[in-house]
Amino acid sequence: MTAQDNMVVRFNYTLRDEQGEVIETNEGGSPIAYLHGHDNMMPGIEDAIAGKEAGAKFSVTPPAADTYGERMESAEQRVSVKHLQGAKVWKAGMPAIVNTEQGQRQVTVVKVGKFMATIDTNHPLSGRELTFDIEVVDIREATDEEIAHGHSHGEGGHQH
Question: Is residue 160 part of a domain?
């Protein structure tokens, strides 16, 4: 069985930066599960997994646009410091969480004053050439309910 639309794929990954240093990994934890073909995974990762079988191990370095997005220099904005979540005292370079109309978003503090802060809304990993070491753990056909909901259920997926 190969990874294709309407299949639930579970995989492990290790994310490495341009120098090969590990940024994050789920090794030793539960595999990530997603419903293939339903926009639940970064396009660069889903494209790399497409057609692979369970047990496949490979590395891929997708373009930034297909992972965390291209870096946009115009993505800075000023917000009240009371909207920043995650610390009591803010300094430039610190990550913060802000609530948006689309839900919570991680931002980076660029400059902070007494009442206002300048934040960078780019994802911290945007614009970078990152390598993903992937191991496809298993693949199964999705249930009708998963397809109707547009995501996988169970371990590593969505919990209702």
Answer: no
State pLDDT tens for residues 80-108. 999 999 999 999 999 999 998 888 989 99
Q: 103: which strand partners?
A: 100
CB 123 within 8 A of CB 116: no
Q: Quote the CA–CA distance of 108 and 94 in Å, as a whole number.
A: 6
Sheet holding 103-112, edge to edge: 76-80, 116-120, 103-112, 95-100
Alpha carbon distance 56, 76 (integer Å): 40
Together in a domain, 12 and 42: yes
Residue reference for tokens 């948006």: 100
**Chain segment 41-50, per-residue pLDDT in tens:** 999 999 999 9
Q: Which pTM does this prediction carry? A: 0.83
Domain of residue 144: give its range.
7-68+126-149
Residues 7-34 as b/e (b if ≥16 CB within 10 A, e otherwise) read bbbbbbbbbbeeeeeeeeeeeeeebbbb
131 and 116 together in one domain: no
Residues 20 and 50 grouped into a single domain = yes
For 106, residues 6+ apart whose C-beta sits below 8 A from its C-beta are: 95, 96, 97, 123, 124
